[in-house]
Amino acid sequence: MEQTFEIILAGFGGQGILFAGKVLAYAGMLEGKEVSWLPSYGPEMRGGTANCHVIVSDSPVGSPIINDPMMVIAMNKPSLDKYEDVVVSGGSIFIDSSLVGRHVRRTDIKSIEIPATQLAMEMNAPKLANMVLIGKMLKETGLVSLETIRATFAKIVPDSKKELVELNIKAVELGYNFN
After folding, report:
1. 9 phi, psi to nearest 5 deg
2. What is the domain count for the chain?
3. Neighbour tally for 140: CB within 10 Å
4. What is the pTM of this model?
5. Residue 39 is part of a domain; what is its CATH number?
6. What is the pLDDT of residues 46-88, one digit of tens each?
């Protein structure tokens, strides 16, 4: 059965939203899927809200723009406020409960809350809350395998930052194994 995952990742500039989207798209590509990665640039780079549209599909992607996502990763309250109402019925929202401060109001979607920033801080890597959320999303959806994520980091992390590969993998695994 063919599957298409339409995901919007959103948060503050500096939270690694665009990198997290790139990880998902590249991992999908490594698994032979059709992918699209549409980052949002602009005032987001100065602390505003950043977002990224990612599509991972078994069939060709017609447009990189997502109007009705099946999943949203919300790393802050403004992102949850902005995207909660556009998730399709039956879809999911993954929330960094360390930063958002409210629950999903809709009852027709699945809300997965994880204290990603707190967990990342506990592993002395506060900038990896994005990867903790990615790990939780992978566990809940099966979008790509952990093995593929490991291979993705090995490919996309520049040589100058290779020491961060294992730390990123550890953060993904932390989210994946979080109950």
Report:
1. -105, 135
2. 1
3. 15
4. 0.93
5. 3.40.920.10
6. 567 789 999 999 999 999 999 999 999 999 999 999 999 999 9
